[in-house]
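Tutorial sheet, problem 5. The two components below are modelled jointly, 696 residues in total.
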Amino acid sequence: MSATTSTQIRLASYPVGEPGDDSYETAVADLPELGDGQVLLRTIYLSLDPYMRGRMSTAKSYAAPVQLGDVMVGATVCEVVESRSDKRAVGDVVLAYTGWQTHAVVEARETRRLDPAAAPVTTALGVLGMPGFTAYGGLLEIGRPQPGETVVVAAATGPVGSAVGQIAKVKGARAVGIAGGAEKCRVLVEELGFDAAVDHRSPTFDEDLKAATPDGIDVYFENVGGHVTEAVVRRLNRFARVPVCGLVAWYNATSAPEGPDQLPAFLRKVLTLSLTVRGFIQDEFVPTHHRSFLEDMAGWIADGSVRYQEDIVDGLENAPEAFRGLLRGSYTGKLLVRVGEDPTRPRA
Amino acid sequence: MSATTSTQIRLASYPVGEPGDDSYETAVADLPELGDGQVLLRTIYLSLDPYMRGRMSTAKSYAAPVQLGDVMVGATVCEVVESRSDKRAVGDVVLAYTGWQTHAVVEARETRRLDPAAAPVTTALGVLGMPGFTAYGGLLEIGRPQPGETVVVAAATGPVGSAVGQIAKVKGARAVGIAGGAEKCRVLVEELGFDAAVDHRSPTFDEDLKAATPDGIDVYFENVGGHVTEAVVRRLNRFARVPVCGLVAWYNATSAPEGPDQLPAFLRKVLTLSLTVRGFIQDEFVPTHHRSFLEDMAGWIADGSVRYQEDIVDGLENAPEAFRGLLRGSYTGKLLVRVGEDPTRPRA
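Model answer (structure tokens):
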């Protein structure tokens, strides 16, 4: 007999600044009876991603905010525990978008079945999922790195940044990663194959970045903002491309930072260097690039060109604290919350 | 017997803020004997353009600064008064780049002969010259206006802005011009065929802009910066394109403006709206677009689709004051200095 309730973490208030515990409420909801074509899912992994901070705000964006009282959104890997669809069988492991909860009833067609034999199921939330596709689409469609060019990415050990740097290497470019702390920088060079790594927390960050980019910067994959952006912009070459994918350093900002106003100098750089600055969300590249992404990335993982790291936090109740850590840069790899047992990878 | 001297306005010091009279010095230089292939030119018109402010600065840019003691640069329309080239005859009127002076000796091949019967020779400095091509290349290659979209341009009565709006109309878009003062706004709608005009000096500028762009803004051709940019950015639609052509409002700025820092909010707009912000200078489009520009623009002038206005100031000695007026927005049309008599258009 399967669960008929779901433990849920819901949005209790729109946070100002860092989302505290009072931004959330935990509740147990009764689940509906399954209708035709529906499945009951048990959450195995919940993906935590920076974009979620944007959904906790009513500021105009590309996606509607989470409504107060609604379950926090998020991609998940789940096990089918009950099915009224001939497309999904009990025991199937699927990719879904059921959010911060232990169980959910959804249409079977809204899930994608995963093959645990082809790749660890967690990769569907990382390197073979939305973060990997974000890197692939933004880098190849906007960044367009050429052999010998220099590609810089921050949050470089994370699921997007690590894919950006490694895809840049596949394309023959020099990959320079920016990360916080010596250990992450070591991971970049020794484990992920970046050509150089720069610690943005170092007091010599500007000089270190300069030394790591002797020929300037041709592509800056922007996913952090803040002082990293300011330093990188000074190193951009003529005709450099800046895919703008995220600005996590500013997501918790409660007001415009104090001056001086950097916008005039930034636009002057755009003008005098013929820069291309292009925001995107990965959805827009799905029709044109998703098929090639799945083929290319699976191949790059298989041949060792692209490696990935994961940080797994146990227990749905720890998601709020883990999410704060994500925004602070406390994790090295792709952050996942293990909500329930993983039948494909039993714990030792 | 032709002149063997040239009266020149040279750069005396790099200005801080608005270039005062002490930024310039006037001198009379002896000209060299003509070598083979060279011509002696007498300046008829000197073009004054905002980019010259950038050349009066040692800040890194796409072009080297004018060196102290050198003649101020600029495009000119000249008459050939002596020739040692079989390519140019005495009496030819040519486009050259001889700067702020009355005469110059140059290679004949560095000039382009103009046909006064085909178009007024002043158009080679305006609508059929660099400003017109700047509008054409930036709007069509980066802005890519689609039928029914809304295109906004500031400094809209000027040589670049007026061409941007009128080309946008040719392409089926709605053209909204921003200018300073009621008279310029009248010119935009009544004489240049814009769909709407907005006075950026009005206390109700933000509301007026909103009323003039009921469907938002799809293309913002950026050539001013300042508070106009801030207001326009709030009206941009998803996937809007922003060709960055100039930032004249900030050219005389002596330091970064006081805060708050607008850069984070700007980049957030870029991200959430998938904006394309792309700086350019017209040179980069010459190989791909200059031939079609000359054909298209000549046709549009002939059929009345594109009209132009000129402001002509008499006397080289008045160039410094005229240039200050240009940066302040004191002129309506393309600003020219008449340095010497125009044989193609004798004064009444």
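Marking note: Chain B touches chain A through 42 residues (CB under 8 Å). Full credit if you identified this.
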